[in-house]
Amino acid sequence: MKIFRLLPVAALLVASLSAIAIAAPKSIKVATDATWPPMEMVDANKKIVGYDIDFLNAVAKEAGVTVEFKNTAWDGIFAGLDSGKYDAIISSVTITNERKAKYDFTDAYTSIGQILVVPKTDRTSKTIADLKGKKVGSQIGTTGAMEVKKVAGVESKTYDEIGLAFEDMAAGRISGVVCDEPVAAHFALKKKEYKEKFKIVGKSFTKEGYGIVVKKGNKELVALLNKGIKAVKAKKLDAKIHAQWVK
Question: What is the pLDDT of residues 103-152, one digit of tens each?
Fold first, then answer.
């Protein structure tokens, strides 16, 4: 009798495992704010490219899924995930406790820090605090903006796109920009119209991990993406991608 009673349980277990396997997605839609070079940007051919794009494509290949990227403005990117417009976000999103309270994250796939960029004519400023009484720009809703707002006496000015902050600094409307280190290097050291005007000062003053964001409770997708991230790192593909985009 015990044998016959166990058979339905075993059958249910097999069925449950099969359902989980079937539930694994074959393709996912992923949002990115492609205004954050070299991590995510639009090239001359209107194609979304960058470190995050190549990294997630490598992750997806290892995980056995395909990715459709959707260029999405930062100020609405989390709302789009909430409403189901896409399955995940990869857009230089720092893993913070505040964000983890509302969303699930994959393992961190790279780490960065915030850094300050000022005009080359500024020969004294090394930190945000040195710009008291002046305006400092950052992208709205980013950890850079949060860091600027922590400093008393500095006026925070936020922008929908980080490139607009650098435009304003070139025009003399703000005195500094705070952003992720790779982005700072792109604008201050590589962009031809700015590299003679701007400089990075001091050292990065935060340590942050980027993660892929999914809806709270979507453990299956997190597990699938983490599987891909582990494989990419084990094969050292992340180092090749880093060398290509972050120089």
Answer: 999 999 999 999 999 999 999 999 999 999 999 999 999 999 999 999 99
Q: Are 67 and 185 in contact (CB under 8 A)?
A: no
Cα–Cα distance measured from residue 94 to residue 183, given in angstroms and rounded to the nearest whole number: 14
Domains and their CATH numbers in the chain: 23-111+210-245 (3.40.190.10), 114-201 (3.40.190.10)
Whether the Cβ atoms of residue 53 and residue 89 lie closer than 8 Å to each other: no
Residues in a beta bridge with 156? 136
pTM, full prediction: 0.84
The percent of residues above 70 in pLDDT, for the chain, comes to 90
Count CA atoms closer than 13 A to 228's CA, side-chain side: 22
